[in-house]
UniProtKB/TrEMBL annotation:
Residue ranges occupied by any Type VII secretion system protein EssD-like domain in the UniProt entry: 128-228
Basic and acidic residues composition bias: residue spans: 97-107
GO MF, any single term: endonuclease activity
Domain of life: Bacteria
Keyword set, alphabetical order: Endonuclease, Hydrolase, Nuclease, Signal
Protein's name in the database: DNA/RNA non-specific endonuclease
Region (Disordered): 97-118
Organism of derivation: Bifidobacterium moraviense
InterPro entries: DNA/RNA_non-sp_Endonuclease_sf, Endonuclea_NS_2
Length: 258
């Protein structure tokens, strides 16, 4: 009976964290955070109103228990049994950033969760559905027309990240860059890092990106990014949402749900 009371209390606590209107399945609580997730990751519902640029700053960076590489190096987790990429962590230097920017791009032909057909889509970047009503009169930065999915780097090439599957997830275009002006999605912290290291060439940036999976799904629902500059001026824990306004993503297999 005592254990049942504890379980009930835990369920009630989790329920308080879930937005109104979202049901909590008690059997699924253990699956909210996948095998590669950071302890600070929280899975909640995305909304365009709350996170129009597809990222949310949720606190300060947390590298507790993480073995950090030497300055100028990046380490990548080995893919799990499903072939999914895990955590990537690096200590970014100006030299690493320059080497990555100057290197020729060499993307893998496919990665885990990559769809057989990458659909061309129209994504409304605002809530007024202007994009769907009339593409020809679509105001700047209100619509995206193009392929839905990107091979999204965990640590950007421009920060020295490798063009290999261990450093990539199948992400929506908006997960990768948000509205793209200003930079959103993964590009938010990438831009912050590039701008800072260019202004502080003798400094370093501790940078960690962790894809968060639900159960055996092949696509992460979020990626959490921890970024801390050596002078402490940037110190953030950021949740990046792998979704797209108006589309239902098939996280289990890739592509979209009909």
């Amino acid at each position: 009976m005592h254990l049942r009371k504890i379980a009930a209390a835990l369920l009630a606590a989790v329920t308080l964290l879930v937005p109104a209107g979202c049901a909590v399945d008690p059997s699924a609580i253990g699956d909210l955070i996948g095998p590669s997730a950071s302890s600070g990751a929280q899975v909640t519902e995305w909304s365009l109103a709350a996170a129009p640029d597809y990222y949310t700053v949720t606190g300060k960076a947390d590298f507790t228990g993480v073995t950090l590489p030497a300055a100028g190096e990046i380490t990548y987790a080995q893919p799990d049994s499903l072939g999914r990429s895990g955590r990537a962590v690096g200590v970014i230097t100006k030299q690493l950033r320059d080497d990555g920017s100057e290197r020729d791009r060499d993307m893998p032909s496919t990665i885990t969760g990559w769809p057989k057909r990458n659909p061309e889509v129209d994504i409304n970047l605002t809530a007024d559905n202007t994009c769907a009503q009339d593409k020809s009169t679509c105001p700047k930065n209100t619509c995206y027309h193009g392929y839905l999915f990107n091979k999204s780097h965990l640590i950007a090439k421009s920060l020295g990240g490798a063009d290999k599957a261990e450093n990539m997830v199948t992400g929506t275009r908006t997960q990768n860059v948000g509205k793209n002006n200003p930079a959103g999605g993964m590009a938010y912290t990438e831009t912050e890092a590039r701008d800072w290291i260019d202004k502080h060439p003798d400094g370093t940036i501790t940078y960690m990106a962790t894809p968060n999976y639900t159960g055996n799904e092949l696509l992460p629902r979020t990626v959490t990014v921890d970024i801390r500059t050596s002078d402490g001026s940037i110190d953030q824990h950021v949740t990046v949402w792998n979704t797209a306004n108006g589309y239902s993503i098939d996280y289990a297999k890739g592509g979209t749900l009909q």
